[in-house]
Amino acid sequence: MEKKELAIATDFAGEAGRLEETEHLLRSISEAGFTHIHWCHEWEGDYTYSKYEMYQIRDWMERYGLKAKALHASKGSRRNVNLLNGHYRKDYTSDWEYNRKAGVELIQNRIDLAKYLGAEEIVLHLYPPYQTFRTRPDLREPFYARVKRSFDELQSYCREQGIRICLENLFDMPADYVTDQWDMLLQEYPPEYMGICLDTGHGYMSWGENLLNIIEKYRDRIYSVHLHDNNRTVDYHLLPGEGEIDWHKVMWELAQSTYRLPLTLEVNCQEDDREAFLRRAYQAGMMIQKYYDEGLNE
After folding, report:
1. CB of 62 within 8 A of CB of 46?
2. Nearest to 210 by CA among 179, 241, 181
């Protein structure tokens, strides 16, 4: 029987400093049964990959028989994303033009990495500083004008490389900010360039059972997924089945969307035996894969 394809985010146990540990991580992912990775290292911050690091990652993937489903890009330096309060490095939403362009350059670096690894999409966070907007609503329009300027500059680069940007739904903001962004930007940019990364854990935190309606509404633009579970109180990134999400219903809705397999788990390991965790993660992935297949066949 043909082996089912399944992806997992590479930072499921954090990010190791030693390269030997990164190689071991990829080997363990492969040995657990996964066929694909979602490269999540350096998903936040202003780190820039050398092309030689790209070669190294690709060589490890080839050695252990792994492919790349997607890659998580970075919004730039860590900061309080809910406020406009000073300037931080490589921020593609910045009102300092050189800093904004540096943020665009950082995303281009992740597009290059995605291309080297064979992925077709990058996932990106877009945080509106909503706490500032509440007291300064006049700043909203120029903020999104800068965002669009950055996306305009990235569009030709993405399309030349065959990479799509997928905007992730985030839970640490009012839920209507997410759908407002999607409605505005998905109308502005074509599906060949921009889509959605559906994060089920974030979605359940924000929308609860209404997550099903969100999947249905945006089904034609879902190209990436982060699949994980929670109990709607903390973003635990649990294995599917360990929280309260109704995976039968979620996977049925996802099966009706434009999403293309493999499925991608974005889960957190909180135990010492990482290999045992990966084996359990693979079984959880096969469980929701079964629900997805049932949705395709109904």
Report:
1. no
2. 179
